[in-house]
Structure formats: C-alpha cells, structure tokens
Amino acid sequence: MAILKGKIEDRTIYSKELSEDIEVFVYLPPKYSTLVKYPVLIAQDGRDYFQLGKLAKTADRLMHEGTISEFILFGITHKGIEDRNSKYRPEGDKHDAYLRFLAHELVPWINREFNTLMLGSSTALIGDSLGGYISLKAALLYPNTFSKLILQSPYAPDSVLKEVEESNKISAVQIYHSIGDEEHAFKVPSGEVKNFLDPNRKLNCILAEKSMQYKYHEFNGSHLWVNWQHDIIPGLTFLFRD
C-alpha cells in the first residue's frame, strides 16, 4: 500500500441548512505550511473518492512528482444511497439545502479552519454521476465561489443542459469533463437502464461553444470507479498543473 507524503484528517462540520453533522475527510499536501495559502478541491461522495477513486493517493503522488501544484482536498461524506439521493438529485428534499450548505457553510468553514486562498478562482469541485450533476449545479448557482470543476460522467438532465446553455456566467468556470464510451446503457441501482453518453455529448457541444477553459474526454469504459480512478489524473492535471 502506498504511503502518503501528505496526511489525512477526519473532521466534522455542523450544517444549519441540513440540520445535521457532516463528516469531511481532509487531505493536507506534503509540504503543508501555515505560512502558505492553498487552493481547494472539494469532492462529492467523499468516502468513495478517497477509497475507491484513490483521489488523495493520486493527488499526493502528482504533487510529490511536481506534476501539479499543492492544494487541500476535502471529501464530503453522505449517509447512504437515500441520503445521497435526497441531496444530489434535483428532486431531492434536501437538494436546495445541500447547495446552500456547499456555498454558505462549507466554504466559509474551510477558509476559517485552513490556510486557503479564499478566492472562487481557487476553489474546485469534483463529482461523478449525480455528484457531477450537483457540482455543475453549484457552479451555475455560485460561479464566484466555485470556478473549477471536474465532472466525471455527470448526470445531465435536460433541465441542467438548458441552464448551462442560458448561463452567461458559466464561461468563467474552468471545466474538465469526461464520459465513458460505453455509458449509453448503464443500469442504475434501481434497475433502470440510463443513457449517460448522449446527454454528456450534448453538454460537451454546449460548453464547447462557450469561450472558456474547457476540456472534454471520452475514455474507454463505463460508469464505474475503475474508469473514474484513472481519469482523475488528467482532470487534476488540467486544473492544477504546476
């Protein structure tokens, strides 16, 4: 097992918006110093990104190699599939409150507790599937707070495609966007078969028309962590190249 050059802490933040404690994994980079201000990357599905996606290990290695600049990584956890759906899905009963939590509670807490640059241009979100959707939605609502995105196979309903197309502010957001070339027929946990590929191609066409820092990648594979794990490297490199 790889040994991290940086370190991971387990923290808790109470959300008034959600009326609950939120567990947050925190990765501090190898040369973390209280004298330096760092950019920030916030991951939806934090436990999965740390354990299945190996996000902290990948970032740690790329930082140690000098491939990317150092940043502080935060992984937001949820309490299971029902809780995830209530927060991430557009029709979820905690959806709006979760978005407010991200912008109005989590980011200020991060800036109080850690040495950060405290600029929207230095704050990024990463998410897969519904986590990609909620990250994109947050940037649409709060582009001055979240101006960098890594979207891995994001859920892209017509409603969010329309919002992106009509947005005058999304052009200020730097985006790495990827999707698997086998994601035209993915069976979601409910058993329903979903086509993620075609909506993401539509999203690509919309974003490619805007004047912005944007990279689109179709990887060989499906809607699986084994694919997203490898795809993290080009995403981090695009946003944090040293």
Strand composition percent: 15-25%
Q: Tell me how many strands there are.
A: 10
Computed structural class: alpha/beta
Q: Please work out how many helical segments DSSP would assign.
A: 8
Unreliable stretches (pLDDT < 50, length at least 5) are none
Order of helices and strands: EEEHHEHHEHEHEEEHEH
Total discrete domains: 1
Terminal CA distance reads 26 Å
Q: Characterize the quaternary organization of these chains.
A: single chain
| Average pLDDT rating | 95
Q: Return the CATH architecture.
A: 3-Layer(aba) Sandwich
Please, could you describe this protein's structure?
This protein has eight helices and ten strands. It has 242 residues and is of the alpha/beta class. It has a single domain, classed as Rossmann fold. It has an eight-stranded mixed sheet, sandwiched between helices. Strand 5, helix 5 and strand 6 form a beta-alpha-beta unit. The radius of gyration is 17 Å and the shape is globular. It comes from Fictibacillus aquaticus. This is Enterochelin esterase.
